[in-house]
User: Fold these one by one.
Assistant:
Number 1:
Amino acid sequence: MEKWKIIIALISISLTSCFHDLDEAGAFHSKYNTNERFEMSQEWNSTHPFQVILMPDSTYSVLYCADTHIGTYKEFSMVLDAAKNPSNAALVVAGDVTRGHTESYDTLETLMNTVDSVNWFLTTGNHDLYFGGWDEYFPRFGASTYYFIVSTPAGNDLFIILDSGSGSLGNLQIDWLSNILESFHPSVRHISIATHLNVFKDGLGLTSGLPMEEVNVLLDLCTRYEVDYVISGHDHTRFETTLGVTDYIIMDQCHDEESNSSYLEVRYEKNHCSHYFNAIAE
Amino acid sequence: MKIHKTLLVCCLCMLSGMLTHGQIQLESTLTTGQNQTKPEGFLNMAICPAYELNQWTFGAGAELAVLNPQNTMLDAWKLDAGRKILIKKHEYKLYGGFYCRPFSEYLRELNLVLTIKTEYGHFRGMIGNNSRIWRLSGKAIEQWPEADSAGTIMKKEYRNLLYDFSVYLKKTDHPWNIGLGFSNLNGFFFNQETTPMLFSRYENKITESMQLFAECWFQQAGSANLQTQYFGFFIKGGLVWKSGK
């Protein structure tokens, strides 16, 4: 009996050390659920109005990446360098920016403070919320649900950032999304949505997506309001599909410890948008 | 007009069971609960007639959203067939079904389901696959004809593991029973394989031909992300009636 207790204790210790970046308690409970984070985000938004980025040309790009998992940030630095190009209106990092530890957030905050010339926008992924990560994210970066506008001579484009870090968009965020889409459509040229969790999933895999009820609500809204792009990360495997008039894209990771990293560049033009992936050279 | 269509589908479902000879089965259920997409609650009613002939079962069914429908009152409908088979003297049930959920005026969710299930002692188990197809409705194709020409009117997900495992206090053929289990499907609804639901079930065979059951279901979001939260719950009560017993 004693022998078994020792074996179980050794297995537990080794598992804990192997999964330093996993918050096992989070499998059962989140300190803040999506609705609570959304309400905090809205409070933040009430004192920090949405940003309008003015672009002199009607054609411009926005860069997207996800799953940087800072720690180290060699590859993410390359994306930040690319984002400094004046033809890029903004950089959106769609979650899992950190590993949830305080030191990860310290590194990220220091890094982002060095790139004043870039309009960067973050949201949370599941890893950012590990180990009580929302308590680190919110005071430093504010809202995880918000929108911004890119204004060009030919019209305005709407960018919506959603928080799906704990597996659900939540009813408050869904209502907010619906209201935003209704109030902006069809007065804007293009609409893009970025969030961490992927909408579609085909085949076996350990990463879960949104509950099917929410997937169907999101698909309905994207089709109804002619959303151009829904961009996500989470799976660390590139995937592109189109349903109706909406492109659904899962990005590669942008993580030093994995190969085949890339970031996404979406080019917004007067009557259409196009996208391509830029490989990050190691 | 929508109500007329719904009533017509219900009548057809009933007639498909009643006009045939042999053993008829009728299952009717009421489901109520709440989740993040329907925080104010919902109430669904389902009727599923089936006809059993030798080892085969042929069925149909419709689920009506009585309270807070997402789109139309006809929430979902299905056509299905099953066959009992014996492998080493143990009975298994093969099942195939086609499900349609017109959840939006612009989109339909279609599911092709294939499962195998069995019972052993205190256990019930089922595994299978569903292929999910989202398809633009006729109205959407009319509105965006470019989607038709570009071949983007549907999105297919061929592989999604289905499972349903439960353990019971008594042997599964006992007149009454109570059990616990986990599953990623219920009735007309199929979750992704990484989003299991927990449930408890009470069932009672009140006569040889009639069984009552009640289930409580708990839905968790993001369970395989290791960062989870409550998503919803629902309670389902039903009656299964079989003729000729």
Note: The radius of gyration of chain B is 19 Å.
Number 2:
Amino acid sequence: MGNKMFKLTGRPASPGIARGEAWITRENRIHVRQSRVEEDKIPQELEAFQSARAHAEKQLLKLIELQSDETVHEILEAQIQIINDPEIQSKIESYIRDEQFSAEYSIFKAYNEYIELLDQSGQSWAIDRSIDITSVRDSMIRGISGEQRVSRAPKGAVIFTEELSPADLLELHQAGVSAIIMQRGGITSHAVILAQSFGIPCIIGVTWREHLKESRAPVIADADAGELFVYPTESIQRTFQQKLREKELHKEEDNRLIQAPNKTGCGTSFILRANVEFLEELPRVGQFRAEGIGLLRTEALFLQDGYFDTEKHLEFYNEILEKTGDQPVTIRLLDIGGDKLPGYDIREANPFLGWRGIRVLLDERRLLEQQLRSILRAAAAHPGRVRILVPMVSDLTEFEEFQKEYDRVASLLEAEGVTVDERIPAGLMVEVPAIALKAHEAAQVADFFSIGSNDLTQYTLAADRGNERVASLYQTSHPAVWRLIKMACEAADQAGIPIHVCGEIAGKPPLAAALLGMGIRELSMNPASIPGVKKVLCRHKISDFKELLASILDSTDGAMAEEAVGQWFTNAAE
Amino acid sequence: MIKRKISVRNESGLHARPAAELVKLASRFESDFILQLQGYKVNGKSILGVMTLAAECGAELELITEGPDEEDAMDAITELFDNKFNTD
């Protein structure tokens, strides 16, 4: 005791209130000492630089593929520009060639010249950019030295740091820290975006280094307000206990809701499942009581390795199945663009209209066979629970080709002594308008439909939401898109096959309501969206949802539909 | 070689996204592209160069293109400036 309380302020970056003991990370900025190499080592150093450059670029490309948020894309693309900057490349090469500096030191020195210039300007935008450049610099240097950073943080700690890389943040999340305080860090930095998605309270721009000298000091961090109290007085502690209690009450209300059965106000049952990509997300699936997984993305694992590791995928699918009780798990086949395949250097003028999804898999049969092997073996160990989803089908012969390949792999496995689950449903992802328009025929070949609303919207309205000039044309409640969904729905109904939605619209409460109005009873979304969706669905009746749906379908255009949806939601919340 | 004077008219100046847009566009042309601000010259195909130029809204720049497609490059770049980098 005897330590006087002090208050620090910063910018709220990820909401929440936390208390814990301070834990200060090691100084994380890399420092490379000046070192020179022998003349005959110059080619080696040049090569080391080029491979570090390629490695850093590849890592960012992978991150881009894993992220759907267009702001994140923009940031990552700017980082790639920083890596491939022609001026810095020739500067680094000249340091190696003319000064005989080591590759590590040359990278360090060249980037620092720009970092210093930006830091000196004192402008906040410049400091954010200098953080980006530092992280590029460090990832290139680590690519050469192979060194890793962050040491183990204790569970429940409030982390005090200068700034964090995405990998550091992932590690802190796994350690179970309660809040993160950064001296630097922009609202657009990767670490902040990840903290938000993991629900870790985070405050940035806090000048703590001069004030906080030791770890283990008690801290209360209020990331809703951007304030933190070190050595809090008793009255501050009481205030926050009260705040935490209130938050807890809201949580209890959410909890009660989560425990309640999935039934609308008029007693109609519905199913809410989770979209999942990483094992780390599974606790949240349980927390929000998702009924299994409606969309398991399999791209991350493949892109991490750069090739298909059958055993690793099998292990991943098994672990997912083991941790989701007796609920179904829908595995989507690899949905990647051809440019992400190792050994291909493909530049397409229109990648979204190009070689991707099932188109790639049918041309690269070995890849399809490998994935089917992993899926079928996982399904054999968990009979009756696996479903397969085929992405980017635009022509029904593609789906039929897939089925032939499926049968072939199944009989191969049986010959090898694997008991193949008799009937694994194979679903067709409805994301190309042509499929919705010919939904009756599609419903004859597919075991179920799953609406991929993101791509369906972009293809129907011919608008890429990542392109700022046309992003406003990408309207999720546009009546044209909803007519296509309706066609798919009616065809599924007539053919007697199930229909689900796994796109973003399923996670938006009013649109989820409209989907129920259409007769769809199974939605899959990010686990965190479940409470919000469930609240609206439980409190209203199917007849309300039908009214909402009619107002979307009858709208003249997207803007009108959007307004109708907004209006409905405002009334619904009252 | 073509020279043209232009002023930065978008609110956020020539950093972050506008800088990235400018570099992306300039890199499509074969011609060299130089940006000059108060005697300070940078390679317009270098994101780091453009960032460190730190041109704010209202800054008067001189654009220089030189090469086989210098006219097309200059026109495209000028258009990007005139459209305020499609931001505001």
Note: Chain A is about 50% helix and 10% strand.
